[in-house]
Amino acid sequence: MRRQLRSRRAPASPYGYRYRLDDQDEVNQNYLADEEEEAEEEARVMVVPDLEEEEEEEEEEEEEEEEEIEEEEKEEEKGQGRPTGNAWWQKWQIVNEYLWDPEKRMSLARTGLILVIYFFFYASLAAVITLCMYTLFLTISPYMPPFTERVKPPGVMIRPFAHSLNFNFNVSEPDTWQHYVISLNGFLQGYNDSLQEEMNVDCPPGQYFIQDGDEDEDKKACQFKRSFLKNCSGLEDPTFGYSTGQPCILLKMNRIVGFRPELGDPVKVSCKVQRGDENDIRSINYYPESASFDLRYYPYYGKLTHVNYTSPLVAMHFTDVVKNQAVPVQCQLKGKGIINDVINDRFVGRVIFTLNIET
Amino acid sequence: MGKKTLEIYSVELSGTKDVEQTDKEDGKERYRGLKNCFHSKKDHHTEKLKKELDLDDHKLSIKELEKKYGTNIITGLSSTQAAELLAQNGPNALTPPKETPEIIKFLKQMVGGFSILLWIGAILCWIAYGIQYSMNKSSSLDDVYLGCVLALVVILTGIFAYYQEAKSTNIMSTFNKMIPQQAFVIRDSEKKTIPAEQLVVGDIVEIKGGDRVPADIRLLSAQGCKVDNSSLTGESEPQARSSEFTHDSLLETKNIAFYSTTCLEGTATGMVINTGDRTIIGQIASLASGVGNEKTPIAIEIEHFVHIVAGVAVSIGILFFIIAVSLKYQVLDAIIFLIGIIVANVPEGLLATVTVTLSLTAKRMAKKNCLVKNLEAVETLGSTSIICSDKTGTLTQNRMTVAHLWFDNQIFIADTSEDHSNQVFDQSSGTWASLSKIITLCNRAEFKPGQESVPIMKRIVVGDASETALLKFSEVILGDVMEIRKRNHKVAEIPFNSTNKFQLSIHKTDDPNDKRFLMVMKGAPERILEKCSTIMVNGQEQPLDKSTAEAFHTAYMELGGLGERVLGFCHLYLPADEFPETYTFDVDAINFPTSNLCFVGLLSMIDPPRSTVPDAVTKCRSAGIKVIMVTGDHPITAKAIAKSVGIISANSETVEDIAKRLHIAVEQVNKRDAKAAVVTGAELKDMSPEQLDELLTNYSEIVFARTSPQQKLIIVEGCQRQNAVVAVTGDGVNDSPALKKADIGIAMGIAGSDAAKNAADMVLLDDNFASIVTGVEEGRLIFDNLKKTIAYTLTKNIAELCPFLIYIIVGLPLPIGTITILFIDLGTDIIPSIALAYEKAESDIMNRKPRHKKKDRLVNEQLAIYSYLHIGLIQAVGGFVVYFTVYAQEGFKPNILINLRVEWEDSNVNDLEDSYGQQWTWYQRKYLEWTGYTAFFVGIMVQQIADLIIRKTRRNSIFQQGLFRNKVIWVGIASQIIIALILSYGLGSITALNFTMLRPQYWFVAVPYAILIWVYDEVRKLFIRLYPGSWWEKNMYY
């Protein structure tokens, strides 16, 4: 039936017809379409001619053409809309046909229409999401996050840190510890006394450094000078003790906006052997000697206004550690409001690392 | 033509001639049918058949038989011989059709559908862990767990599907239970009762009325033996059996009784010539199991759908695997992405949902007397475009009923409805009094005792169909027939036989003053008329002249033309002087007159259509379903019933009708003018497949008459060549190949043989055609609803997939985890998608054409595109908004999230800065990530509620459909919310599940998007309704 119809149409556009026939047959095969199905399809299209389609009084041929275009364009839509259809080869053929056929100029317009509609659909979706996100940000203060429970209690991190919490080095081989020194030096650049004195204020110790005023006012930051770290500042001993087998490790507490340790009870740091013989570490020196984070460094007002905020540090100087064996060390924060025994999170209020100093 | 009718309709009571004629006509066809089947089968079948055809036991004399089987017809086989033969040939039972081993069935469930994809996912998980393990011995076991969960999901859904299948098979196994049969056999010169299974070839068996024939038997002697071959041939006419060889064909000759047929009356002795699978029926049964089961349309649809989804999953998976690798991700990461994409794309719960939906419908249909054996057949019925229906029992009530009476030169109509209650014809005439007496007295049928409380029409009667009809007819009108018979004592009787073609009895009258005997006679009308010289009109005897004879013929023709079986009735009061009270009647010598009787009237009977059938046929017609009647009956009867039930509509004509109307030859009629056609088996036999195709396409109303059950197969194949989905009803064993071949085979629950029930996909418990139509309705509804379910389920796949794609490309922390996805697919979404099965139809589904097998797909482009690219994307956007809200409110604004993935997931980074300069440990971030999962999950869940509501309809507005009409939907919505609440607040503390307790306000972030989905879909439906046939409808209606 189809063939008959076609052959009737053939003289009208013999060139296009030829190509179409070949392609269509292949497509037919792909879709396992049978003649009857197509006949029915044609019948349907004839009964319900397309609304926005050209003049209806045009011949049956024309209608058949339309129908084919429609098929075409459905596929086109599929091909474009769903970037990874189930059968690539099918798509390839359709695209191929699309590119080939001179008669398909119409379908360009149709495809165009679909593209426009999808464009508008997605554009409005994008507009909606933008609007939503915009209103969301209107409700969120840029200075203070709405919720901080997740990030509390504070976590702890140490320096030097190079993707590992195992400090393995050989005192007599500088190559094995040189990177720690470089890392520490780099980290402490921001703590240089000159820089701190220039940027930050020296605020009174032992009390919060509370700065009232508008939220959006820039906040001042308290000085934390490199020299506070004494022997671990790298000023006297540029190798931070690594060359003598007495490594310095700096400990810092994670910043949390608005976090205030208990008044009069600054957070202290204490380290001990985590597992094994306690005497593996015979002495640790802490700098500042109080081994605590002074209250004047709190609260933190957030990145936006508290630009120069310098995280306070506590340096641990392991002056006498057993050599040539791995010593697991656990450093904990102690103080009110500090939790240091969360099972799942080994960095909340504590940090565990191993020292393996070879001589 | 008139003459022919006369001949055929002169047959009554046992209708032997009728049967003979059928046999003659059908003899060859049956073979042809068989041969046709065998042709398409493997060679050994053909071999087998040939062997069977060579069997000539019916031609042999008894002596030759004895020699052949080494037996003796007096003493039978010896026990030792029998035991030997039994050991050699096996028991006399049909081998049950080869069942797929349970374990294979189970494994099939494990690898079917999406299971393969999920297995791949699971294996990839384990491979990923293997790689991790080889790099780092202490790597986390998460991937192993995920792999196990995926495997568990596959196994559980597999077990579920297997269980469902097993359950529906179990329904059937009750049918298979047969009462162990006993056979009465002569062995060692003794009569013994042994289980029929132990019969061997050569055994001499005795059968009597009511027995089932225990094997193929060559009759050696018979007394009034009649068998019902309906289980073999589908014709329920009793057939006489004798020891004479009457036909060359084994199937037609009278001296063979077939296994599994029933002996209706009489007794016979015969020799077993075939046992077990070598019996004719055994061969047909094995033939049926040889006909491949066609895949059900819904199975094809689901496969198509699985292909689409799997195709999308695999191609997106591979595409992004390549993208991930080219973005310099590690292969390990790329594998994990692949797993995520597969899990997100596969609707894990869907196939189980479909199974549940189908079984819900199957249950509903079982309530309406359609017992579905194969779950998928539920839908097949809905897509049926041609129903080939039996006549007897399915379209008709399967009992002869008096339809018309003719007396006093007038035709009266009797009530043929199921309860017979309303007999309105004129009963005042004297002729009726006489006629009723003849009807009552000249009748051997009796009610079985003890049925006084049973309605008359339902009482069980001993006797043949016509006599039963007459008995019930007279009982309804006259009251206690047995009492009347008692009062009119029967003194002599000549039962019906095929040579006389009449039945006669002589009674004393109940009038004590009248000493005459009354002779009553009924039989073939023209035979009765021959014996009459007078006719009773208005209670008065008048001489039978030419005009009254003419009137008789006109009435006879008219009733015969209605396809009814006509009986003539006459009587004679024997003169008291010649026949005194003490007279002894000798029925053999016939010492009484049997001519010059008084003709009283005609009575015609038909197996009337069931009262619900015409409606059902009309429904089928408006539903675009072609109903074809296939019957073994005479064309005229078939046509009459077809007309009365509407299979041939009132205004359509056959070629013959047109010829008759225009008084031209049949050949001159333009065949295109005729809409209806009545085709006999004989004509069908001579048709080429092309001619049959032409017949099936050109005529919309077709009746096949006088067909053998084997020809059903040819008809079914013809219909299937038209691309139709064919439903076939059947009851005989011979129907089973056609039942198997059909897209949906429907066996009769009451009249059907076990073989037919086995071969069928569906069993009609009440044998009623109307039940098929309700089944069709349910089937169509389920197709629509499955579409909705699938659209609902597919939608969220995009919302689950997008997070992975964004995660890979933009490097956000993972918005939703694989486990969480599984909780949506197998948790919150399950009950709602089942709830859609309870949705009512949007419009009258019986007013549209059956769906086209290859065009109206379950999952079409429009559905996929609309679900994936419209609603799915809105959902994804909604989900992301919730996700971003959670992250932003915790400190991570979207801009900082971009490309944060690597650091975010590095467990060594424990001071990652957020937008506010706060520093997060790895576990804190992880917890936030899970909160994000939960938030995204809740976002999808909230929007799925909207999705569920919009999927209630495809074209109508939700408000037209009624928001609250389907209560189950609300159960589904409640279940969704409750499961989500439990997951978040109940199980939020179990870290392995990756759920956290979500702040209450986050539950509402996606609500605007839910509303957007609803509004968007309402707009879509509005445009579809406003502009039917438009570009919009073509692209947006799924």
From TrEMBL, chain A:
**Membrane-topology descriptor:** Single-pass type II membrane protein
Q: What is one process in the GO biological process aspect for this record?
A: regulation of DNA-templated transcription
What is a single cellular component term in the Gene Ontology annotation? Answer: sodium:potassium-exchanging ATPase complex
Where is the major localization of this protein?
membrane
- PANTHER family associated with the record: PROTEIN ATP1B4, SODIUM/POTASSIUM-DEPENDENT ATPASE BETA SUBUNIT
Q: What does this protein do?
A: May act as a transcriptional coregulator during muscle development through its interaction with SNW1. Has lost its ancestral function as a Na,K-ATPase beta-subunit. This is the non-catalytic component of the active enzyme, which catalyzes the hydrolysis of ATP coupled with the exchange of Na(+) and K(+) ions across the plasma membrane.
Subunit-level organization: Associates with a SMAD7-transcriptional complex. Interacts with SNW1 and TOR1AIP1. Does not associate with known Na,K-ATPase alpha-subunits.
Q: What is this protein called in UniProt?
A: Sodium/potassium-transporting ATPase subunit beta
Q: Write down the species.
A: Vulpes vulpes (Red fox)
> What is the phylogenetic placement of the source species in the record?
Eukaryota, Metazoa, Chordata, Craniata, Vertebrata
TrEMBL record, chain B:
Per UniProt, the keywords (alphabetical) are:
ATP-binding, Hydrogen ion transport, Ion transport, Magnesium, Membrane, Metal-binding, Nucleotide-binding, Phosphoprotein, Potassium, Potassium transport, Translocase, Transmembrane, Transmembrane helix, Transport
**Similarity remark:** Belongs to the cation transport ATPase (P-type) (TC 3.A.3) family. Type IIC subfamily.
**Bilayer topology annotation:** Multi-pass membrane protein
Does the UniProt entry include the keyword Magnesium?
A: yes
Keyword Transmembrane helix found? yes
CDD domains listed in its UniProt record? P-type_ATPase_Na-K_like
Ranges for the Cation-transporting P-type ATPase N-terminal domain? 56-130
Membrane-crossing ranges are 111-132, 144-163, 305-329, 335-358, 863-886, 969-988, 1000-1016
User: What is this protein's name?
Assistant: Sodium/potassium-transporting ATPase subunit alpha
Q: Which Pfam families match?
A: Cation_ATPase, Cation_ATPase_C, Cation_ATPase_N, E1-E2_ATPase, Hydrolase_3
Origin species: Vulpes vulpes (Red fox)
Where is the protein situated, by its record's location annotation? Cell membrane; Membrane
Which SUPFAM superfamilies does this one have? Answer: Calcium ATPase, transduction domain A (SSF81653), Calcium ATPase, transmembrane domain M (SSF81665), HAD-like (SSF56784), Metal cation-transporting ATPase, ATP-binding domain N (SSF81660)
